[in-house]
Protein 1
Amino acid sequence: MPAVLRPALTLCLVTVGTSALTGRVAAQTEQAFPYLATVTTEEFVRAGADVRFYPFGRVQTGDVVKVIGEKAGWARVATVGPAFEEFFGYVRYATSSIPSFRLSLDGASGSTIGPTDIFAPNLDARMDPASSWKPATTLAANRTLRVIETTTLATEVVHKVVLPADAEGWIDLQRLRPATPAEVSVWEAAMKESTGAPPVSRAPDRPAMPITLAPITHAPSARAPITQAPVGRAAPNVGMAIEVPPAMVPNTPVAVRPRPVSPERRRARIMLDDLEAAYARLLVEPTESAEVGPLRLLYLDLAKRSRDSRSISRFAKTRAQQLALWSEVQRRRLDLAGALDRARRTTESAESARLVMEAMDRYEVVGLLDASTIYDGKRLPKLLRIRDDTGRTLSYLEPDDRFDYAKLLGHRIGIVGDRSDDNGLRVTLIDPRRIDVLDSTD
């Protein structure tokens, strides 16, 4: 580690040192990152900040990791250091498309041509590339990667690559503690030893016979040096002349300009980040009341709009499938709750049932007013939602100055107004003309 960074690291360790008594890393301010932490028990490294994200590797007790952020009780770690030496990812692209990754002639390395996703392998799916949908990082053009192996499938090419140091994973903060000065020193020594990229291929046991080839521009491998000579001439210091037909001489690779990131792809990436933030908020909500349906429609809309970005489109479709399964579980629970509610209502007086029916006839919608988790007013518009007793969303409201919605939150209300479908937000809106409170406001 450079000397100029050691004071910052020392300050970071002092900051987190007070949490050693609790056995976990204390909450960090933005200025305290990065810092080093030690793994207290064998633990998965996950593709997101929740147990619902699949694991793509495992760290062992005593491993030291570099924490670059925290979120909801999870540590964001960079895949750098001895703990991540065996971690890898996938670079994938369709055989029918223009690849954003160029493989070297020896197949041991490659470089990115444009923005390239490196997908974290899904351990839950036996590291099947087709099931590995979460990017560990997205690299810009002109980044070189070590390639472990390349597989060509019927419709896709998959490169298994060593994860770069700027890839990210997530570890439960309860499995970490601040690294001691001795552990920091060992980690720094290991990082110094690993400076400089290791060879991308192993030298053969026997030096290869020099062959006269025309100069080429790709990165040299670890093989014996090649003597440059005109095609058809004998190599110097060799007892026999070797004629190389011109057809066997590799052509100089044509320079390919990195593809610029289009405004559509940039907007799609921003929208995906917003939807992922909304998805993370839904994970901590009760299954019955989570706004699963609207979020699923937003992911499907993003997948449709992102056809020029296969990775974003594929990711959005996968997330929509997950939400569809969640929606089915939600539907079954709500059906059960509805059946129980109907059974309860049959035991109530006929007068109460009559009043409920009259209320339903008078109002366009009757339900509890609640805030929306998805439409929170940050990047998506701010909306309020009306839900029934089971948590099912009935409709949405746009806040306005005609009604004091702050006082109505949490109360059962009846709304006289008009319904309309907002195709952009994928929700049903109601424009109220009158709002009545149907429960006690004491």
Protein 2
Amino acid sequence: MSDRTPDAPTLSRDRGVTVFTLFTTTGTLLCCALPIVFVSLGLGATVVAITSTFPFLVTLTHYKIWVFAFSGLMLVVSGWLMFRSGRHCPTDAALGAACGKADRWNRRIYWTSVTIWSVGFFAAYVALPLRIWLGI
């Protein structure tokens, strides 16, 4: 077993992937979950105002399968980078504390991304079939 500590570029890459994952999963929430929630709450005019202000949301909605697939892939890659074996913080006290703090923030961002992706997936693919099945 090696006592290899991650170097700065590796930690920076892991953090960059985690932040990019948060960005992509937020895209799933914006394109698919929020419009459905707004319409369900009777705020259809809000959806019209948002899509007329940000027309790229309509394009994201047309390609939602690809948006969800790409962001799901990013979640898998980010999770693998974060939870793979062999990752250790440096033994130096200051560097170890900074590494531990960065790792805690990366995990928070990752689980926030997983939650956002799950909410978006539920709203885009599960909510309507469930509603039809329940007859609501």
Protein 3
Amino acid sequence: MIQTPPAVPGVREDEIDTPALLIDLDAFEYNLDRMATLLAPTGVKLRAHAKTHKSPVIAKLQMARGAVGQCVQKVAEAEVFAWGGIPDILVSNEIVGASKLARLCALSAIAKTAVCVDDASHIDAIERASAAAGRRMTVLVEIDVGAARCGIAAGPAAAALAERIAASKHLVFGGLQAYQGSAQHRRTVDERQALIGIATEAVRRTVALLGQRGIACPIVGGAGTGTFEIEAASGVYTEVQAGSYIFMDADYAQNLDASGKPVSTFRHALFVLATVMSAAHRGIAVLDAGAKAVAMDSGMPTVWGKPDIRYASVSDEHGKLDIGSESTMPMIGEKLRLVPGHCDPTVDLYDWYVGVRGGRVECLWPVTARGGTA
């Protein structure tokens, strides 16, 4: 069942039903503009990762600022964005299953659609689906650049897959997918640079080998919010796939810059608004936002603007706060903003964004691509 919208435009923030997913529109727009400004002089394009926001509304705002398209992880997400008017979509993942591939090939009739592979069996399956649909699918080879998740070995093994794709009458070789996910949350600049240096060298070797075999590599994609500036400066990557930058979460806020201070490139724009529902015990308050309201996979949320209040423990429907002093004890009914530890799975818990500016609700946007469907 679709959740009832928690507010209507024009009401005050303290009138929003909770828990609710808030976007601070001023901070959000700052982040959109900041990314466009940072990438403009590099010539590297943004293919923003839609698994963060799950919203064609937000995708169009990113593309209005120069993004070339969107990344998704699942066929169902690709469908939502194609039907929502996004013309260029990369499924930055391997897709297995005849029915899913048939859906993806059908989708390519209304949007430029690409998918990743890291095994010859993937290529064979996409080739069959493309032939049956009468389409030519664009296929990227995913290489392992150090994360040891998906991706074939860089170099000859990757080049062999690219040759196989390029030789197919039903497929088009689109380039390389080279995302180093494990580098994104390394806290120091030196750690992040070291890992991306390894990734960049793997990409460079593979692109050179493809060139020797007469195969052009139109796209080299990867990078995330934690490292995109390093990839953009490498001279190797052509697209970055940052997603969380539009919202920023509590975990990314722990990354450090070269001076050892928290990175301040982007602003916190995504919050879960929660209400204090109980204050029966000294030094403790309880919110109506627990594990069903905010993701905990990257740690507890932080309480925005309240350094003396700590989100201490969680249950399904309750979040327990430790209050640092009597003077900061919130009242029953008071609403607090939480900064999620991880924005992507938090967004997936909601049907609606509530856009707030100047203390009032300005807009409601549906979270159209949420849910576990493939």
Protein 4
Amino acid sequence: MQRPPARIGEALAAVETPALVVDLDAFEHNLDLMANAVRGSGLALRPHGKAHKCPDIAKAQIARGAVGICCQKVDEAAAFVAAGIDDILLTNEIVAPAKIARLAALARSATIGVLVDDAQPIADLSAAAVQAGGTLDVCVEIDVGAHRCGVAPGAAAVPLAQAIAAAPGLRFRGLHAYHGAAQHLRQPSQRLAAIEAASAMAAQTKALIEAAGVPCPVVTGAGTGTWQLERDSHVYTELQPGSYAFMDADYGRNALAPDEHAFEHSLYVLATVMSTPTPERAIVDAGLKASAFDSGLPQVHAVRGLDYVKASDEHGVLQVDPARGAPALGDRIWLIPGHCDPTVNLYDWIVGMRGERVECVWPVAARGAVG
């Protein structure tokens, strides 16, 4: 773990860059907006911890009514359990024996859920849970359009649910029906069509499982791009948005329907201008190792005439509009990352700013937890 880039109480000018910075006013607005939009709906909010990997943020979400969080890796879940988070759904399939054993051990001190889309891991999860002396919650994952993991919706899910319900040490909780590919469909009509289809698949599968005599209390899924659609579907019982707390440049490209809630950008990579070699070019100290580039280049926030156009390992190249003039050496530039989740995974610390002052410095405790 690297040393923190700032100390509580310091001014913005003292923050060492590149640093991962959260605007606390925008961040808290996002948390409150989501919590209030779900409260009273009868649905559970289970935000996805893979977006922030930070127990302090998970605790802020739970304090606002979330039932727990999601994770995607066993070691990620372990970091949150160690910090006191006691209800975690691992939204992934786990097949390696060592990982299954670690997951079952976590269930001794927290409520732990996991996914299956094949019969083989059910016996392994059962044996590990019995040996650890705990109980694992298990959901059957169905493929509702993402074409990633997941058994085909419908009849194929029924024997898996029956096997889980009959296995010692396991508790069948329901269906995982997450349509990841729908989150970044740009037009509201596209997202609506995708989630209407996903909801129909989940409803049909749930009905078949219950007709076979197995209660199916949970249908969990949804993300930042579609959560209102799942909330209003009358099919889903639990929502898993993650990026809403931060937002990023890619989510900013989604067009919103008139009734969709708009979240604010709260996560930034703070960079410093370290060179102005020509009037048309400035260089900042945040390059490929400071931001994820899988969803495009970072965007310069709230400054006209500066565009982030190229990156190398430790350099970011800004194109300068001659009409505005070059920034000065030492100027701070706020960059909106293209994709928040993998950007967070590059940092050991999140610096929380309230105006121009550092209010908190949070460890990214699950950084690098890929096992």
